[in-house]
Design brief:
Elements lengths: L3 H8 L9 H32 L3 H26 L6 H27 L2 H23 L1 H4 L3 H16 L10 H22 L6 H32 L1
Length: about 230
């Protein structure tokens, strides 16, 4: 009996907008494109990390990034594309929670590449915050409603800002840093479309921004691994 309210809450229909068929098709195209590209890109990234870096921390960091990428894409596709009503609220919670996982996972390979004693504390703090937010989204979504967007943006920018200071081996290259900033700006700009609920295709556009930003961060990881390999060989 005590579990009945919680069960009904998970099966409740999430508040959604009346998207047209064209909007749903466009959103599905963005999701399927993202998943297809991720399936091709993930093994390439792990292979490059293993061949050109070879260090267990970097390979593990890259693997964590790919897991976070698939978690975000998979949960987003499930929530936005599966027409079920019964579990819509649960899928919504998973979708929103997976964003925190993706944010922390994106920062993990950069932290492993930079290294240094202090970087463990940085990435540990990022993950602790992200996992706390995940629990909040899953079990207390109403309390997280007003905090979600500021926390998404704050966690993303704060974590990356903490990684910038450094010299020599403990610094990211200008190329990677530029890509990171570009990716962050794309994510941030996309939020405007996410909030523009009355704009047609706003959901597909928002997810398109997410996909492009993901590709930019992916490129930043590859460029950093490649540049460090070239420097080591020279």
């Amino acid at each position: 009996m005590s579990d009945a309210p919680a069960s009904r809450g998970l099966r409740a229909t999430a508040v959604s907008h009346d998207y047209t068929r064209g909007e749903r098709i466009a959103d599905a195209a963005v999701h399927f494109t993202g998943i297809a590209l991720a399936l091709m890109a993930a093994p390439v990234l792990i292979l490059l990390a293993a061949v050109f870096d070879g260090g267990a921390p970097v390979v593990a960091g890259v693997a964590v990034y790919t897991v976070g990428m698939f978690a975000m894409l998979g949960c987003s596709a499930a929530y936005n594309l599966i027409p079920t009503v019964r579990w819509k609220e649960l899928l919504r919670r998973l979708d929103h929670a997976a964003i925190y996982v993706k944010i922390a996972a994106t920062q993990t390979p950069f932290a492993m590449l930079i290294g240094g004693a202090g970087m463990g504390w940085v990435i540990g703090s990022v993950w602790a915050t992200a996992l706390g937010a995940v629990l909040g989204k899953l079990f207390w979504p109403a309390r997280m409603r007003r905090l979600s967007l500021p926390l998404y943006l704050g966690l993303g920018w704060a974590g990356l800002m903490l990684m910038w200071p450094g010299e020599g081996a403990h610094a990211l290259s200008p190329v990677s840093t530029g890509l990171i900033v570009t990716g962050g700006l794309i994510y941030t700009a996309g939020v405007g479309f996410f909030l523009a609920k009355r704009l047609r295709f706003h959901n597909a556009i928002w997810h398109g921004f997410v996909l492009v930003a993901t590709f930019v961060f992916y490129s930043a990881i590859i460029s950093e691994i490649g540049l460090r390999a070239v420097a080591a060989a020279g």
